[in-house]
Amino acid sequence: MEFKQLNIHAWETFDKGQDIHMQAAPSQAELLYKNYKVIKGKLKSHTKDTILEKYGNAATDEDLSMELLLGQSERQVEYDRAGRITKGQEKALPRSKYEEDVYINNHTSVWGSWWKDHHWGYKCCKQMIRNSYCIGAAGIEVAEATTDLMKANITHKEATKEITSPMEEKRLATWGTDIPDDLVLNEKLLAEVLKKVN
Q: Which of 95, 150, 170, 180 is the most buried (most CB within 10 A)?
């Protein structure tokens, strides 16, 4: 049984990065296993001593310290994995785990107090960037001016739509867009370009 435990210890320490092999160096593996058992025993006794020193031994007739006596009660409280009380104490008012009403970067409203075009933002400056710095009413004016300018540019472009000439269509067609059926290539120029490429 001890040999089996020695093999298991050698495998586990090899997996953890130590260069131990039971068949290659059995003496080294056995020595390391003995050292491991000694260190583990010392750690166990040290942990036991610190617990006894802090809390005392209930099996002896020693009097318990006042800190422990005053901290005890007959009430049992059960907790879930998240640390919330499930049984044993009166229901407390639920508190949010998120910070509320925290104003950052000179803002006077919280993030998410304004909504436009499927985006959240700050109501005070109507910015939709989360960690932006608030510039107040001046920022609102600049944002409105840029949107007005963008709308004006779009309407101007739609009003002055140019019709492309047939020559431009042929030139665009050679770059991989739609190739018209009546496209005619200059064979002489094509041969010169192919000669330069090769």
A: 170
Q: Phi and psi at residue 144, in whole multiples of 5°?
A: -65, -40
Are residues 7 and 22 in contact, defined by beta-carbon separation less than 8 angstroms?
yes
50 burial level (CB within 10 Å; 0-12, 13-18, 19+): exposed
Q: What is the pLDDT of residues 48-106, one digit of tens each?
A: 999 988 887 777 767 767 766 776 667 778 888 988 888 876 665 667 777 777 788 88
Element (H, E) at 49: helix 26-55
CA–CA separation, 155 and 159 (whole Å): 6
Q: Which two tokens stand for residue 140?
A: 């609102």
Q: Output the six-digit token pair for 114.
A: 């304004």
User: Residue 127 burial by CB count (10 A; 0-12/13-18/19+): exposed, middle or buried?
Assistant: buried
Give the span between the Cα atoms of 70 and 63, in whole angstroms: 13
Half-sphere exposure of 24 (CA within 13 A, CB side): 6
Beta bridge partners of 87: 78
Q: Are 127 and 136 in contact (CB under 8 A)?
A: no
State the residue for tokens 């131990």. Answer: 20
Single-letter amino acid, residue 145: A
Please report which helix (H) or strand (E) contains residue 79, including its range.
Answer: strand 78-79
* Extents of the domains making up the chain: 2-60, 101-176
